[in-house]
Design goal:
Structural class: alpha+beta
CATH topology: Alpha-Beta Plaits
Strand order of the largest sheet: 2-5-1-6
Helix content: 25-40%
Strand content: 25-35%
CATH architecture: 2-Layer Sandwich
CATH superfamily: Dimeric alpha+beta barrel
Shape: flat
Number of domains: 1
Distance between the termini: 16 Å
Order of helices and strands: EHHEEEEHEH
Largest sheet: 4 strands, antiparallel
Amino acid sequence: MLFLLLVKASDRSEAGLFPDPSLQEAMAAFNRDLVEAGVRVMAKGLHPTREALRFSFRRPDEEPDVTSGPFEPPIDHLAGFILIEVASKDEAVAWARRMPDPQGHGEGQIELRQVFESREMN
């Protein structure tokens, strides 16, 4: 089963500030644990929304409207993600509980979402 740990943005991540070194090391250790357990598929951080474009499809069969970032509020956006492959939702929840506060400063929030796999979509 595939799950995404979606790291929500914060004012600090939207400002392009990286976590302090101790939090960076805690996140690196968590990622090493995921790799060693053989469950991490991919992990990436995202640039702030000030560098993003939003494509809004307002009418069928028409070109989308394009808006440049930044977008507000930060908590509605993503700062990064970790894709894991595990045997069950309970295992995914256990990994999510082990993840350090990804933003630090009491701003961190992650969202756990299961990924549809091709056999589910047929």
